Amino acid sequence: MNRTALVTGASSGIGRATAVALAGRGYRVIGTSRHPEVIAPEQRVAGVEYVALDLCSDDSIEGLADLLAGVDVLVNNAGESQCGPLEDLPLDAVRRLFQINVVGPVRLAQLVLPGMRERGHGRVVMIGSMLASFPLAYRSSYVAAKAALKGFSTGARHEFSPFGVWLTTVEPGSIRTGISERRTAYVAPDSPHRRDFETMLAALDRNERAGTPPERVAATVVAAVEARRPKPRYAVGSNAPVVFAARRFAPAALVEKLTHRRHDLRR
Fold first, then answer.
1. What is the pLDDT of residues 195-249, one digit of tens each?
2. Which of 50, 142, 186, 234 is flagged as catalytic?
3. Does 142 qualify as catalytic in the annotation?
4. pLDDT tens column, 29-54
5. What domains can you pick out in the chain, each with its CATH number?
6. Where, if anywhere, are coiled coils annotated (predicted)?
7. 170 contact partners, CB below 8 Å, separation of at least 6
């Protein structure tokens, strides 16, 4: 195999597990991090090349243009997890979230796709979230960002499939990555939503601590990358086959109710 893969956010969690999995399959793997120089030796993956990328910086993204021109597989994994009642979310925080979770990844795709198209082969994998399919209260900004990312991927995939280039989205459920320690949260001290918000947040952290290991998500990413015709969406974790089947047959109101009950919201 003589394929090059670039994985964003490769220093931990799903990104690191994906870098390990792809390197083990013989890919040349380039992993990005905002500060690759501070990645601890035990967190570095043998054989992976690390480069700096700050998705909040247009200059940082454009600085990878030459590198991306030769990439065969792009895994857009890096992102921010955000939560808070809609009326308490600062607009600057929402803008930052969309820059990191949507605009930055879309620009990386724009930079990588022409080379893939010219070579007649390529894969772009967006790491989304099952919350894009099962929206949750107090996660509206994150739900919207992941739904937007999936929309770009699904909408554009038929533009490039005639050239042997496929875009797909992997939607993880609750994954054991430690992301709860890095999630940004916004709630006003006197917010009428505070009690329910804190209830949801505690359940979210509990579910993630008991969630699927990131290696299982990485295996799903590899399956999507190596499929002859990747599906538009792959879901993994949180009993994905059962809950997606239920969504097809159960009333929407019931699915919404069950989603919120999983997070201890009973109303």
1. 999 999 999 999 998 889 999 999 999 999 999 999 999 999 878 888 888 788 8
2. 142
3. yes
4. 999 999 999 998 888 999 999 999 99
5. 4-261 (3.40.50.720)
6. none
7. 125, 126, 127, 128, 217, 220, 221, 224, 233, 234, 235, 236
